[in-house]
Amino acid sequence: MRKLTLFLVALLPLMLSAQLSIGDEAPDFNLINVDGDSVSLADMPETEGIILVFTCNHCPVAKLYEQRIIELDAAYADEGYPVVAINPNSPRKKPLDNYPNMQKRAEEKGYTFPYLADPTGETAKAYGATRTPEIYLLERDDEGKLFLAYTGAIDNNSASAEDADAHYVAEAIANLKKGKAADPNFTKAIGCTIKWASTK
Amino acid sequence: MSVEEFLVEYQATDSDQPILYNFWASWCGPCVKELPYFESLSNDEDETEIKVVLVSLDFGEERLLKFLEKQPLQSEVIFLTDWSGADEAWISTVHPDWSGAIPITTLKSKNSSRAARLDAFENEADLLGWLEEHTK
């Protein structure tokens, strides 16, 4: 038993940097929104869930999904699943993704949801995010805890919303509302690498 | 070339030659920055027998061609015509560890095993070191 404990302790750093698994509790954060306020998951105890998305200003794939992210908030915020967007890129590596430019983008595009700066990438690392855009759909359990229900793409066509014929996030939420698990609960998609503050 | 056609080529085992596949796009900054390292590999036939294939994930072939006009490439360039709507399973077929973030570089060695580098190379020495490690 003691050996096992030592083994697990040795593994801990690896486990912490690994991808959050389906069913895992969502790590909370405290990040600055474009309006200057700090936002954490604990601030939103009434929601059914959260559509958490790692996205940014500069990435062309993120830009192609921007309108779809705005539409997700319009469609699901009132149903208890608001969007929370987090930009995990280092402003030093990508000036286009710095805080003033985030404010500008949110203003110009009329974001109806928080757009949070994660300049150290710590929150993205806690979730195991690798790219922008990347969705982490969180669902609240009976005890009020948020856990990961789906992670991956919004739908299956980055170039064209009209041509997408699988709407992963919408379908996952429909399932969750019926008390069923998201299916699929994980998808991959082409995106931009996160521009980490420090090189690994 | 469609994703389906590409995967047939990618998974073929009839050649002994190590093949480096780099997945990139003209819209991806870190990808464009590392292209010269692969190019020097294609130019330098004495030092290495590695074939280089640059697989473009541009939004439309026109954008790729426009880029190639400005920055011609000696390496073989493949344009995937339907990547943005293809079944996402293709990403795992390229490499199980790949999330879809570009750039990614894979190397098929002589014994058909497949190594993957999940981010950009820092410089040419970094690329050469990685190749040496995976072609032993």
Compact description:
The complex is a heterodimer of chains A (200) and B (136). Chain A has 5 helices and 9 strands, in the order αβββαβαβαβββαβ.
Describe the structure.
The complex is a heterodimer of chains A (200) and B (136). Chain A is of the alpha+beta class. Chain A has 5 helices and 9 strands. In chain A, strands 2-1-5-4-3-7-8 form a 7-stranded mixed sheet, covered by helices on one side. In chain A, strands 6-9 form a two-stranded antiparallel sheet. Chain A is globular. The relative contact order of chain A is 0.20. Chain B has 136 residues and is α/β, with parallel strands linked by helices. In chain B, strand 5 and strand 6 form a beta hairpin. The longest helix of chain B has 15 residues. Chain B is globular, with a radius of gyration of 14 Å. The termini of chain B are far apart. Chains A and B meet through strand 9 of A and strand 4 of B. Strand 9 of chain A pairs parallel with strand 4 of chain B.
User: Could you tell me the number of beta strands of chain A?
Assistant: 9
- Give the mean pLDDT of chain B: 92
Low-confidence stretches of chain A: 11-16
Low-confidence stretches of chain B: none
Q: Strands of the largest sheet of chain A, in order across it?
A: 2-1-5-4-3-7-8
Q: Helix and strand succession of chain A? A: HEEEHEHEHEEEHE
Instruction: Please give the radius of gyration of chain A in angstroms.
Output: 17 Å
Which helices and strands appear, and what pairs or packs with what?
The complex is a heterodimer of chains A (200) and B (136).
Chain A (H helix, E strand, L loop, with lengths): L1 H16 L13 E3 L4 E2 L9 E6 L5 H17 L6 E5 L11 H11 L5 E3 L4 H6 L3 E2 L1 E7 L5 E7 L15 H10 L13 E3 L7
Parallel strand pairs in A: 3-4, 4-5
Antiparallel strand pairs in A: 1-2, 1-5, 3-7, 6-9, 7-8
Chain B lengths: L2 H9 L7 E6 L4 H15 L7 E6 L4 H10 L5 E4 L9 H6 L6 E2 L1 E5 L5 E4 L6 H12 L1
Parallel strand pairs in B: 1-2, 2-3
Antiparallel strand pairs in B: 1-5, 5-6
